[in-house]
Amino acid sequence: MFTSFKELQKEINFTMKSEINLGLERMRRFLEKVGNPQNQIKIVHIGGTNGKGSTLRFLESILQEAGHHVGTFHSPSYEYINDQISVNGAYITDRELMKIIKIFNEKGLDEAGLTEFELQTAMAYYYFAFMKKVDFALIEVGLGGREDSTNVIKPVLSIITNVGYDHIGFLGTTIKEIAAHKAGIIKKGIPVICGEQKAEAKEVIKAEAKTIDSPISFMEEDFSYSLVDREQEGETFSFHSKEKLISDIRISMQGEHQVANASLAIKAYLTLTEKGLARYEENILKRGLLKATHPGRFEVVSRNPLIIMDGAHNDEAMDALVRSMEMCYSNRKVIVLFSALIDKPIESMVKKLEKLASEIIFTSFHFPRAARAENIYHISHHPNKQVEEEWEIALNAAVSRLDEESVLLVTGSLYFISETRSYLTRRKDKV
């Protein structure tokens, strides 16, 4: 499998741009050349600041359990670029990636001027429509929503998990401005489900839905959950809506934020059944939720020594991570390995981690927007802080110091998690 598009380019020649360049016209023009695959599939479009990936995984697992062929597209990768496009958990193969690039080259890819993410999105739509036909495609928004390259579709359902301060340089500096971007995935007459609680964000999202006559359901207004039990192996809760009461639901992902994500997936499944696109069975729902996993989200990648990975890449995600760590590992010494992108609220994220960490190590990784470890180090006021620019050196040093009374928490940028997770997985396979 390919760890990057540069590796894929060594096998088959094509051009793309690496920068972020919001807008939809390039995508629309190119997709028309390849048969408008996005119009051939039933899509659930999932946006929001946090929880997109977990909500996608919960809904994917439910629909698979119900016997559907389910395609998923997410970013960034967990380990290989192949894993961003999958059907029923099976990643697109190297051969299939190269076949799509060959077809795209014949249709004028060189002249299209697509960015890397636009190319990935186009490949996903083509794959799900023409190569591995799916019953549903679950598509995760890349950045924002309104001008994100995934937003060239008319989905059967839209989900907005929440709105927080993220990608401020691209989406705006206020919750209302960011919410306006997220609300851009709402389509005329298409139902939308939202987990947002902040009044200023809900106001923007409600106004967008009303303007284009889209029925909208909000968590805590139209549906909700109640925690029943919390343990290290997951959560147990009940789901409530005007139509349904579902008790004794169990998930293997930890943290109340995951219960909220699971509740969004339940509401999505119920909405699809109401539209006649899926068949409701409570046992299917419960089995699917329990089986759902999400790599890199409070994931135990090693038990001996104990290593947790979590892509807490903004304030809201960091709050959820700290709560989960305090609940599950309050009896252990926490060693933190942290790296982030320069456009994130690094100072406030570090402050949250400092309350949790016995020791904190700042590092960096090879990515255009990665912050330098030394710059993060100077922000911190932790009494036991260290700096090492090369993350492999920092990671190996941290692992070597672990014992039965400690846990290593690797966190920060999702791109950082992707690199370190891949490294630890390969190292584990060699043992």
CA-atom Rg in angstroms:
21 Å
Query: Judging by the overall fold, what is the CATH architecture of the largest domain?
Result: 3-Layer(aba) Sandwich
Mean pLDDT: 93
The helix tally amounts to 16
* DSSP strand content: 15-25%
Give the helix level as a range of percent.
Answer: 40-55%
Q: What global shape is seen?
A: globular
Main sheet record = 8 strands, mixed
Describe the structure.
The protein has 431 residues and is α/β, with parallel strands linked by helices. The protein folds into two domains: 5-291, UDP-N-acetylmuramoyl-L-alanine:D-glutamate ligase, CATH 3.40.1190; 299-430, Mur ligase, C-terminal domain (Protein-Tyrosine Phosphatase, Chain A). It contains 16 helices and 17 strands. The chain has helices at residues 5-11, 25-33, 52-65, 94-106, 109-112, 116-131, 168-171, 175-182, 199-211, 256-274, 282-291, 315-328, 346-354, 373-379, 391-400, 414-430; strands spanning 43-47, 70-73, 85-87, 90-91, 136-140, 157-160, 192-194, 216-218, 223-231, 234-241, 245-251, 299-303, 306-310, 333-339, 359-364, 385-390, 406-412. Strands 4-3-2-5-1-6-7-8 form an eight-stranded mixed beta sheet, with helices on both faces. Strands 12-13-17-14-15-16 form a six-stranded mixed beta sheet. A three-stranded antiparallel beta sheet has the order 9-10-11, covered by helices on one side. Strand 9 (223-231) and strand 10 form a beta hairpin. Helix 12 runs parallel beside helix 13 (346-354). The longest helix is centred in the middle third of the chain and has 19 residues, at 256-274. The chain is globular and about 55 Å long.
